[in-house]
Design a protein that fits this description.
single chain; 4-stranded antiparallel β-sheet
């Protein structure tokens, strides 16, 4: 029983340290992580797991190791923002895999990508015909960016001499039956307006509203709780 309590305490401690290190190191999406960031994150997680099961009461060593990895990551991130040369060394630089109809096999080899994997990346991005690609670039996060040929890219409003109205973000006014007062005041509305709009959209009780958003045109979109479950497997 004592060992179980000890493991619980160590686990909570490692979670707290991981949380603090994550706050210090900053948030980034998985697709934005460099290879070093990815490996570094796995290493810190592995050390945290080791720390949570240190029954020999020697948890200080993995704790120090976690802190060292976190501090080094922060220092490298700081150097990357301050120095262009350091950024190229730490995070790497984009690599051109294809340009103007030429596939650079040496760059593919340098990126450890064979031609089949390159074609897979093309298909995943919607290019089943490689000849429709102007440029393909391997980014420092491991993703491949594609620039289509001018004749094959989607038409934009400027191509058609159209000036569409800029769409703005909608404000969440109600979530899970609770009014977000700060957002409501920011939208320039009050509770009476909100309740009247909810009733007009068929929601007599605010507790029945799972989400209500207000657009920049003062249009309220209301989504009510149905209590139902969708059983239709349309993606099977």
């Amino acid at each position: 029983m004592q060992e179980i309590l000890y493991i619980c305490a160590l686990s909570l401690g490692s979670i707290v340290v991981l949380f603090l290190l994550t706050k210090i190191m900053g948030y980034r999406q998985m697709s934005e992580l460099s290879m070093f960031d990815y490996v570094n994150g796995i290493t810190i997680g592995s050390i945290a797991a080791e720390m949570s099961t240190s029954l020999d009461e020697n948890f200080v060593q993995p704790l120090v190791a976690m802190i060292v990895y976190g501090v080094v990551s922060v220092i490298l991130a700081y150097l990357s923002t301050k120095s262009m040369a350091a950024r190229k060394i730490i995070t790497g630089k984009p690599l051109i895999l294809m340009d103007k109809g030429t596939i650079y096999e040496k760059n593919l080899k340098k990126a450890k990508i064979d031609i089949n994997e390159f074609l897979t990346q093309c298909r995943v991005s919607g290019y089943f015909d490689v000849s429709k690609i102007q440029t393909a670039i391997l980014e420092d996060n491991g993703k491949v960016s594609f620039l289509p040929l001018e004749a094959d890219r989607p038409a934009t409003p400027s191509d058609l001499n159209i000036e569409p109205k800029q769409e703005m973000m909608s404000a969440n006014l109600v979530i899970d039956g609770k009014i977000l007062w700060k957002n409501l005041r920011h939208a320039g509305k009050d509770e009476n307006w909100l309740m009247n709009q909810l009733k007009a959209n068929g929601a007599d009780d605010i507790k029945d509203v799972i989400l209500a958003t207000c657009s920049d045109e003062n249009k309220l979109n209301v989504f009510v709780k149905t209590g139902k479950q969708m059983n239709l497997d349309v993606f099977m």
